[in-house]
Protein 1
Amino acid sequence: MLGSRRHVAVVGPAEASERECATAHEIGRLLALLDVVVVTGGLGGVMAAAIEGCRSAGGVSLGVLPGSDRPGRSSVEIPTGLGEMRNALVVRSADALIAVGGSWGTLSEIALARRTGIPVVCVGGWSVADAHGAPVDVATEESPASAVEWVLSR
Amino acid sequence: MLGSRRHVAVVGPAEASERECATAHEIGRLLALLDVVVVTGGLGGVMAAAIEGCRSAGGVSLGVLPGSDRPGRSSVEIPTGLGEMRNALVVRSADALIAVGGSWGTLSEIALARRTGIPVVCVGGWSVADAHGAPVDVATEESPASAVEWVLSR
Amino acid sequence: MLGSRRHVAVVGPAEASERECATAHEIGRLLALLDVVVVTGGLGGVMAAAIEGCRSAGGVSLGVLPGSDRPGRSSVEIPTGLGEMRNALVVRSADALIAVGGSWGTLSEIALARRTGIPVVCVGGWSVADAHGAPVDVATEESPASAVEWVLSR
Amino acid sequence: MLGSRRHVAVVGPAEASERECATAHEIGRLLALLDVVVVTGGLGGVMAAAIEGCRSAGGVSLGVLPGSDRPGRSSVEIPTGLGEMRNALVVRSADALIAVGGSWGTLSEIALARRTGIPVVCVGGWSVADAHGAPVDVATEESPASAVEWVLSR
């Protein structure tokens, strides 16, 4: 049934390296092939790459935008006008989260997902340590395929 | 281009008459035929009827849900967890609004759309008068086809 | 106990008549005398008058602002950056709502309050009729004192 | 002027150590003595300690709550019903942020503040490293007094 599709968010910086964009593109493509709705923040960099990968495989993407305009990148776009507060809606829209690369905005999404119990896997990106310097555990995967496999097994 | 599709919201009560549901169904169907994304609050009554009409014509619908669950009615669903505050996001997601029938929730959406300059047309529903009893102008149309024509001409 | 104070919202247009402002000022003053936190949208017109009335009696006011600046009118200000979506937070912050005068923004607040079961009383302002022209019931009072008495008796 | 008071947020986990609570209490007390409105998420642990410290010095506190109830801890309380999404409103309400201790919720607030350019200082808590293991810079201070001095100098 169309409506029961899974939704997975792909998050990452708007200013991303070529390698990060290639990773996000492949993740978007794989999710679309598996009939998963690809949720992003709807802008450039990692987001645009995931949307474009999704589109290349004929998939459906949802852009949860910070502003009040609709750039026309995603299949469906919701211009929330919420600024960076829309990060929480990206997280809420998703059954699981794949983070590619690091930035403060991306970290806020990882933190909100962990706070609310949504599975998160990182491909590259930032790491977190507690007050004693011990690493705070976040799942990591090396490749787009293994990251997609990881989130769909949750 | 897929991404540049217009988005129109169909709003109305979750508890609706058969006639209101038939109207909403036809509006959803016509919008889908015109390649417009049908945005709703994602629940029952007028919303479910518009979604079902959209689906019957192979269209894409976006459900902006008040709760944290995904009922699986719409093509893409965003479980905002915002309660009735999500009404503002339904309005922001839309280039124009068609209201079918009346309720306090529906009236809040009409009022927010008028407040923010988004075109609104009502098919049936509530009317508003100012402190002197003079009607406060809201466009009304009798039929689904004329309502759809009205919003797409804005 | 300080923390257990009641919170009442005073809502109304930013462009208001002298009479509406005088009414809002008196309502703000009376609420402050009764140790009630006066919640508003934090801007001009009816809002500014209610805040000023509250301040004149040494009360505490909360401004729930649409923008990202703090105009410095209220005792405590929360610049939500949510635009008109902050209307829902004004409603949620309040145990009851007093509406003075009419506008689309004010009507959205009345509708959200009625939708979510928060007591509302109007002093002047717009009225609503259903599809058959029958009035949709909203409590009205003539004077500031009777409006304040009405909400505090809920 | 009452309305032009500065607002500083004190953020940290609801389950906190005695030492973290003592730190937050002293920060709340110092901010109140400097006539700063103390903004928190309104719940227990670090939040409750900061509120209590503020109250002990006769200050005004704002609780931006995740739920729809008003626990009665803060001078003014806004029960947003937004869940963890209210973290973004805590950040927006503040001219600067002091984080005491670490948790995913706290990290989301630090990340949003950094993302939006609001000054942040941490007393204890988590640290962040980039993909190459290099520390991502966040200001830290050892004592309540130095943290308060830091934020008020921004």
Protein 2
Amino acid sequence: MSSTSAGGTVRLAGMTTDNKTIVTQALQQMVATGGTDALEPLLREDFVHHKPDSTSSTKTEWLADVRAVPIDRLRVEILHLLADGDHVMLSTRRWLDGGGPGIAAVDIWRLEDGLITEAWELVEPLADVAANLAWWRADAAA
Amino acid sequence: MSSTSAGGTVRLAGMTTDNKTIVTQALQQMVATGGTDALEPLLREDFVHHKPDSTSSTKTEWLADVRAVPIDRLRVEILHLLADGDHVMLSTRRWLDGGGPGIAAVDIWRLEDGLITEAWELVEPLADVAANLAWWRADAAA
């Protein structure tokens, strides 16, 4: 039954690897190795990374953004992991060892044939949470 | 086959209502009616709403927070909707008609027997997206 699970599975050379496993292994390897070498081959060449303000990055641009983070100090706690069809949603808390309070982040990944083809990311710094609750107060007067 | 879909379905008096439908109908009715009357009966009495900074609200507290928003001016665009087991993830853009740029938000809902029992929310004001990309620069020096 694993080939028909909700996770959107894909068969590769007789193996069944589900999309949740692909995404979490990429993250774990990145944090463990402190680099993007394990992430790069999982992204399709025409990968697009979307920001909430409708800007986006190519594969090369996004990998450069990821490499700019001091990954050796990065700590990641996985809070939620959902898969539905071709999409995986990963909710995490991320912070720098010895640094500030960090962020909550949600990444939504779209996969095709075992490769990540598209991603959407939301970031909320923990220091902003109280102010963000009343976002509409500032916006109402805009 | 609808009773075995990935959405986590529940049978009520012979009907099959999936969790995605419950969550989106609650949202649509709230925006359409400008109030929380349609939302209230969908939340279990011991409902808890979690913020990323580990604060939380009870059902009564959260409904009061929702009612504080000028719902008659609220506009909501659904970007992603995923369901996996008991959980539904709803990614939206929200703004006030005639107001500022608004927010991107992700809500994760946990349902039991057709009622919403728990929620986690992330908010990113669109005006903050560029600054949030480099969250670790501020945190590294903290």
Protein 3
Amino acid sequence: MGTGRLEAFSDGVIAVAITLLVLGIAVPRPSAHPLAHDLLKQWPQYAAYVVSFMTIGIIWINHHAMLGRLREADHSILILNLLLLMTIGLLPFATALMAEYLRHSGESLAAAVYAGCFLLMATAFSTLNRHLLIDRAHLLRSELPLEERRFILHRAAVGVVPYAVATPLAFVSPYLTLGICAALDLYYALPRATGYRGSVSRP
Amino acid sequence: MGTGRLEAFSDGVIAVAITLLVLGIAVPRPSAHPLAHDLLKQWPQYAAYVVSFMTIGIIWINHHAMLGRLREADHSILILNLLLLMTIGLLPFATALMAEYLRHSGESLAAAVYAGCFLLMATAFSTLNRHLLIDRAHLLRSELPLEERRFILHRAAVGVVPYAVATPLAFVSPYLTLGICAALDLYYALPRATGYRGSVSRP
Amino acid sequence: MGTGRLEAFSDGVIAVAITLLVLGIAVPRPSAHPLAHDLLKQWPQYAAYVVSFMTIGIIWINHHAMLGRLREADHSILILNLLLLMTIGLLPFATALMAEYLRHSGESLAAAVYAGCFLLMATAFSTLNRHLLIDRAHLLRSELPLEERRFILHRAAVGVVPYAVATPLAFVSPYLTLGICAALDLYYALPRATGYRGSVSRP
Amino acid sequence: MGTGRLEAFSDGVIAVAITLLVLGIAVPRPSAHPLAHDLLKQWPQYAAYVVSFMTIGIIWINHHAMLGRLREADHSILILNLLLLMTIGLLPFATALMAEYLRHSGESLAAAVYAGCFLLMATAFSTLNRHLLIDRAHLLRSELPLEERRFILHRAAVGVVPYAVATPLAFVSPYLTLGICAALDLYYALPRATGYRGSVSRP
């Protein structure tokens, strides 16, 4: 089948997931403290919102580039894409978990689950990318030389590494984990990074 | 009317429903137990998320194939499609119910409601499919031989059977019911299954 | 501007609103009663879900037909469409309110708010329709004779009446109000009703 | 890349955010007061819903006009658009916060956060607009004279001012802040305002 409705459905799921992140920011219940205190105290919720929003947004950009190479999709592509969307759909939970437990007992595990979900997502992305570029190369829009396809794959595989590092590091410091995830967003967002542009034409 | 906006609306509803599933995974409240214990204890929520996500995803793939055969839609198709979407929209509730009650009193009924909602969905799908292929054959994109239409219908009807079996089996064991639903997902996800590909060209 | 993105945005809002209805169906908290009792006791939630889902679905069908007549949109159309979407966006609240209070003190007011929100929606729809067909007739795709435009308008205006009746009747019986809303859905869903088909070609 | 999927994704996020606003309207819990009393008491929730819905709706109209000028998007445009969507995604939280605290201790800060989020959104919008019209003028569909681009930019920059005023004024009166936000919506919604139409052809 063509990729139009596949893109539309993926866009829909990613758009809903990214917008549901706001449900992780709680309206503070009236307390003995002034509201300013209560709002400041929940800063992990804002930090987690920003980091997760940017991460999902960047995966959307990359997803767009990945499907843009495709002429049509078959059953195996649909299923692997579904698995990728399933990991993205988990992020509102992982984000809320991290925000809730940071600065409390259990924060290490919560941060590990958080980065672990990003790791799952990056792995699913990389798997789908490999499937498209190697196993389903005949479904691509234009023939890419094997060398170029390997370059793209290599870069996507490299994207998994920081999360694989950040996940166990949560047991050293959950703040370090959050910092790595934030730094990655910044890296991808910067103009010169190997973001969307780079994934189309090799420098 | 053309099928473009019908597909867009259906995609929207299915994408929202599949993404709302995550609201069924609760952030554990701080308790006397370590977080790891609380997270592990709610494994039915993860299992239900995965099974429901894949089931809705597979129905989306099949829905795509079904509407892809259609040239234009009339009032009766819109209404039957709406009924199908209504059953899909129920699944976040059914999923949360099952996840909440598994391992507690009431688990049999909760699992029966869960599989029962899948049964409703599969029945609505099969009804719409029959309506398109038999009653509205003149609205199809290309003329399909009656024999081929019957083959497609037969397969869709067969898809109802496992849920019709899994629903009452919940009162024997809710785990069995969940297992059947999971096995069905696996069956449809496997490359060789009669999934999307099969519904376009007969083997 | 063209109507493509206007349709896409409207579809998005309507699809999210219709799917959020499920949040009005609560997973019963564990109680002293068996789960079957608790699930049955909340039947107003299921009834309200079905009635609201079908009502929003039918307004979507009619919205589709309305915008389908339009060649391009101007500022006033965008704003009136936004007001219509604002009334549709309220329905998950009105539905949950009605379902929560039916069979309890306050049920009459809750049902009046419920039908009153449908009344608001039907009025906004009718207003936008009149604006398109009378004030912005030069933006229609094809010239419709004034007589035919009046026929369409008249029918849309008639659609407001049942809700204008059902709203105050809530203080006689909230069940009557719910029944009228359900009967309207049934009427529009039936094959021969003046639904989508009728709004394109006059019988 | 083309702007089609960028528009689709933005529409999705904005449509979900605008529809999630309804979650800020609570179904009153049964209390000793009659339901009418409880429903009336939460009027700030309705006011905040209407003001936020119209504000997001108008930003959508303007976003549409802005992207409509664009022929294709590059990495920097995608990232700045993502930042804009991130501020829009915050609004369901800011709206619920304002509605919850109005008429209670903390209302000034809550209203300041509310208008402050609109300020953030207007700033992100203006930044993206400047980037498109000045830095990425070569990606526009048609060459606009510099003078006209400056006119559009100037008007977008002016749109930031009222929120910059309304935010600190919350500490004088949160009602004044809400009133300014509502007046702005009204201004943009009125037929003669410099809304969508004005942003295409200069008067």
Protein 4
Amino acid sequence: MAFTYHRRIHFSDTDAAGVVFFANVCSMCHEAYEASLIASGISLREFFNNSSCAIPIVESQSKFFYPLRCGDRVQISLTPQLISLTEFSIVYHLALMAEGAEADSSQPKRAAWVLTRHVAIEPTQRRRCPVPSNVLEWIDQWGEGPSEALTDENY
Amino acid sequence: MAFTYHRRIHFSDTDAAGVVFFANVCSMCHEAYEASLIASGISLREFFNNSSCAIPIVESQSKFFYPLRCGDRVQISLTPQLISLTEFSIVYHLALMAEGAEADSSQPKRAAWVLTRHVAIEPTQRRRCPVPSNVLEWIDQWGEGPSEALTDENY
Amino acid sequence: MAFTYHRRIHFSDTDAAGVVFFANVCSMCHEAYEASLIASGISLREFFNNSSCAIPIVESQSKFFYPLRCGDRVQISLTPQLISLTEFSIVYHLALMAEGAEADSSQPKRAAWVLTRHVAIEPTQRRRCPVPSNVLEWIDQWGEGPSEALTDENY
Amino acid sequence: MAFTYHRRIHFSDTDAAGVVFFANVCSMCHEAYEASLIASGISLREFFNNSSCAIPIVESQSKFFYPLRCGDRVQISLTPQLISLTEFSIVYHLALMAEGAEADSSQPKRAAWVLTRHVAIEPTQRRRCPVPSNVLEWIDQWGEGPSEALTDENY
């Protein structure tokens, strides 16, 4: 059910150590997030300019297992999960995909793991508001779902 | 014969004016350059770590005609041209592609024009060297070709 | 009279070739532009959110003379020039500064040259409008000035 | 004892929501890390090209409390801590500094918190190696120190 995004590592993603700069792994995950929203029929322009509800990232975590280099083919699997009526998280798994002669025999190599946490807010007052219905549908489409009925004490 | 690259505008490409930050247009063109090298069978890892010949960009020019926003679908057409035995240029045309109901009736909208000039050098001495043969083949494949036989007085 | 900005090369500016990625040179010049606006008492937040006049970059040119590496100390000299009542350009010279034992005896090394061209527009209609008065004062303060009285046939 | 780094928010740090893109907060923290190394007499060029010991980031965490906008003045306080003979972490606190008339009366506003974890490895084999002595001195200079004698079972 996870959304899958494929991406080459660009030269501009790398640093003088020859591998992807750590912060750019987070940018790549945000690209996958945007692609999954488009795949659910959400207009990015409306999503990121919504005057009644903004959904900023309030937390992120990353673990880096294997260095990625220019030209590497990466698969990003993305799974959103609703945390409360006003909040959701996304888990991303990045895998380095084998190519050419190795493509058949090799397994993808675990490269990184990223988590982002997102809170829906009403922009002028910066107070929590419910996650909009089209975003709930996006979570339903690609996510695992909560294990039980949600209540939101923060809301 | 030009190489064509398709790309969504990512949120990280934009700035607080709501449109793509001007320098990021150049980064996008470099992505198209990398994709064209891969399409010609060139390994990016070997290309950018070639100890006998590096090909730095020595000049770039950009013109911006129309602002690009997050989620926009862009087509980049790339045409390399050999300038001398040690030097080539690439011209990029960026067009904003219509979507949905407008896709059939609308023409792509000219968004930007970029030129980069690249010089082949031997890395340790930083002196000019001939453009490698696999890069000449890449120019042949996607380029317009020089209008006459080349001589290189700089070489 | 030029405005001068000093800047270390950050690790995130570099790419897998070990030197600053070409597009990032343009980003650095924009930082110098922002610093010069602040030095003239202009609020960046108001400048980049001005609802009656936006000043997008419509063209840029760059020449790269010497590669810059992580930790290098760079001086950017910036000179704006009014082109017409609705338009100005900025020229940037980037120099690599010597350090430590070499600081006294060595001359700065020319690293790059950049030009940007900016057009004042009224944002909703995207039609040209006069360069605002506080920006004219900024041009007076750091610029060379036009060699003769301006007329603007485009306006 | 923490190292302190001051930085303006650049236009290129922001995104179309008008605030700093979340991943760019991590890049800013890495700038502070580089500045602290220079302040301890460490050459960045040698540090990031050390053929006997590389120190990649293996994990990062970020919390975002307050949005940062173009032109904002930010203070980053950095505190390294040795975790084992082969590993250290850095904690960064980002605060938005008041300016002008508010500078005297206003407290800095907590904007973000970032943690990075770094492991020393021997680059060819990618096996753990001891944190180099000049990096231990840097930790001593800016850090809080471990609360007890270190042993390293991983080493």
